[in-house]
Amino acid sequence: MPMYEFRCTDCQTTFEELVFATADLADVSCPSCASTNVSKQLSAFAVGTGSSGLSGADYSGSAGGDYGGGCDTGGCCSGGTCGV
């Protein structure tokens, strides 16, 4: 069940809504002003890797795992907080 982020064009409130089907997008209304004049926003998403990390992948930019830069701390940055 996808969670979408919306912005009300009437009161500028940003909110998230659980939408079960594409057809239900027309039924979304603003929780602040009840307007149905909303637009779906482009939002970031997270991907969980579990407790074992990324199977030993090296994001530090060193040989064997060069991903075009990396983090200063090496490894996978404790959950991706460095933006890699």
What share of residues are in beta strands?
15-25%
Shape: globular
Distance between the termini: 27 Å
SSE-based structural type: mainly beta
- Give the averaged pLDDT, no decimals: 71
Instruction: Provide the succession of SSEs.
Output: EEEH
Rg, rounded, reads 19 Å
Q: Stretches where pLDDT falls below 50 for ≥5 residues?
A: 57-69
Helix content: under 10%
Largest sheet: 3 strands, antiparallel
- Would you report the number of β strands? 3
**Helical segment tally?**
1
- Strand order across the largest sheet: 2-1-3
Detailed description of the structure:
By secondary structure, the chain is mainly β. The protein has a domain of 39 residues. The chain contains 1 helix and 3 strands. The chain has a 3-stranded antiparallel sheet with strand order 2-1-3, with no helix packed on it. The protein is globular, with a radius of gyration of 19 Å. About 15% of the residues have low confidence.
